[in-house]
From TrEMBL:
<feature type="domain" description="NADP-dependent oxidoreductase">
    <location>
        <begin position="15"/>
        <end position="307"/>
    </location>
</feature>
<protein>
    <recommendedName>
        <fullName>NADP-dependent oxidoreductase domain-containing protein</fullName>
    </recommendedName>
</protein>
<dbReference type="GO" id="GO:0005829">
    <property type="term" value="C:cytosol"/>
</dbReference>
<dbReference type="InterPro" id="IPR036812">
    <property type="entry name" value="NAD(P)_OxRdtase_dom_sf"/>
</dbReference>
<dbReference type="InterPro" id="IPR023210">
    <property type="entry name" value="NADP_OxRdtase_dom"/>
</dbReference>
<dbReference type="InterPro" id="IPR050523">
    <property type="entry name" value="AKR_Detox_Biosynth"/>
</dbReference>
<dbReference type="Pfam" id="PF00248">
    <property type="entry name" value="Aldo_ket_red"/>
</dbReference>
C-alpha cells in the first residue's frame, strides 16, 4: 500500500481507506474482523467510522475489534460528529452536540483520541465561529489530532476553513467517481486552495461502475435491497451506461477488473488523499486492493475523462 498526506498536513494515510458504513447492516462482526485483518496485511491504515453509521452499531463493532483484534496504533481512526440519526434535530453542530458526540465516540471505541475528527454536516443554525472554536477545543484538550469536514459544498468548506487559522482543516469527505464529478466544479478547487485533502466516498457509484448492474439487478446486491435501491438507481441511467461501458472496455484492455479501473481513476485525481472502500466482505476487499497495483495509462485515463464528461 502506498501512502499520502492529508492535504497540507503531515498526517500520512493509506491511499485506500476502509469504510465501515455497512458494518452492522450488510457486514457482521466476524466479517468485519476479516476485513480489518486483510486491510492491515495489505498495509492499509485509514479506517473511517461514524456514530451515525447503522445507528451506532458500526462503531460498536469497531470497538470490539480494537479490544480484541487490532492494535490501536496500527490504525488511523477517523470519525465525525454532527449527525444524530436517533435524535431530533438530526443535524446539530452546536458546541454542546459536537462535544457530547465526540465524548461518546471515545467511550464507545475505548480510545483516548481520534486521529481525524470531522464535522459531518453543515448546520445553518450554528454560527460557523462556534463550530471552529469547538474543533480547536477538541484539539487543545488532546481528544483529536486533526480536523476535517464531510458533506460540505465548496462555499461551506471555504467559510469554515477561513475561520481555522490556528488548527487548519486537513480533510474534506466527498462523493466522487466517474459517475459523480460535481466536486470538480467548486469543492475540489476550494480544497486545494485551502490545503485540504479529499477523502473520497462512493468511488464505485454504489457498485454501478463495476458493471454488475449492466444486465439487471443481482439478487445479492445493494440494488436488490429496498433500503438501498434508491441510492443505486440514481446511477443507473443511459448516460451512466455509456460510462460503465467505457470502464469495461478499459478493464478488458488492461486485463484487470472494472472495479480496479474505477478506483485507480479516482484515486489518482488531483487533490485526492485517500479513497474509502466500503467492501462487504474479504472477497470484495481483495478485488479493491488490486487497484493498488494499477496505474492507468494516460491515454486510458484521458478517454475515461472524455466519456464521463470532464468538469471545467
Amino acid at each position: 500500500m502506498k501512502y499520502r498526506t492529508l492535504g497540507s498536513s503531515g498526517l500520512r494515510v493509506s491511499r485506500l481507506g476502509l469504510g465501515t458504513l455497512n458494518w452492522g447492516l450488510r457486514t457482521n462482526s466476524d466479517e468485519a474482523a476479516g476485513l480489518v485483518s486483510a486491510f492491515l496485511d495489505a498495509g492499509g491504515t485509514l479506517v473511517d467510522s461514524s456514530p451515525a453509521y447503522a445507528d451506532g452499531v458500526s462503531q460498536t463493532i469497531l470497538a470490539g475489534l480494537l479490544k480484541s483484534h487490532v492494535k490501536r496504533e496500527s490504525l488511523v481512526i477517523a470519525s465525525g460528529s454532527g449527525i444524530h440519526p436517533m435524535i431530533h434535530p438530526r443535524v446539530d453542530c452546536s458546541r454542546r452536540a459536537l462535544v457530547a458526540q465526540l465524548d461518546d465516540t471515545l467511550r464507545t471505541l475505548g480510545v483516548d483520541h481520534l486521529d481525524l475528527w470531522q464535522v459531518d454536516a453543515w448546520d445553518p443554525h450554528t454560527p460557523v465561529d462556534e463550530v471552529a472554536q469547538t474543533l480547536f477545543y477538541a484539539v487543545r484538550r488532546g481528544s483529536v489530532r486533526y480536523i476535517g469536514v464531510r458533506g460540505f459544498t465548496g462555499w461551506q468548506l471555504a467559510t469554515l476553513a477561513a475561520r481555522c487559522a490556528e488548527f487548519p482543516l486537513v480533510s474534506a469527505g466527498m462523493e466522487y467517481s466517474l459517475l459523480a464529478r460535481e466536486a470538480e466544479g467548486q469543492l475540489l478547487p476550494c480544497a486545494k486552495y485551502h490545503g485540504v485533502g479529499a477523502v473520497v466516498a462512493t468511488p464505485l457509484a454504489e457498485g454501478v461502475l463495476t458493471g454488475k448492474y449492466r444486465q439487471g439487478v443481482p439478487k445479492d446486491s445493494r440494488g436488490a435491497d429496498p433500503t438501498a435501491a434508491v441510492s443505486v438507481e440514481r446511477f443507473r441511467t443511459e448516460a451512466a451506461n455509456r460510462i460503465v461501458d467505457g470502464v469495461l472496455t478499459a478493464a478488458d484492455g488492461l486485463a484487470t477488473s472494472p472495479l480496479a479501473v474505477a478506483l485507480a481513476w479516482v484515486r489518482d485525481r488531483l487533490g485526492v488523499s485517500s479513497v474509502l472502500v466500503g467492501a462487504r466482505d474479504v472477497a470484495q476487499l481483495t478485488g479493491a486492493l488490486a487497484a493498488e497495483e494499477l496505474t492507468l495509462p494516460k491515454s486510458i485515463a484521458s478517454a475515461l475523462d472524455d466519456v464521463s464528461g470532464a468538469q471545467p
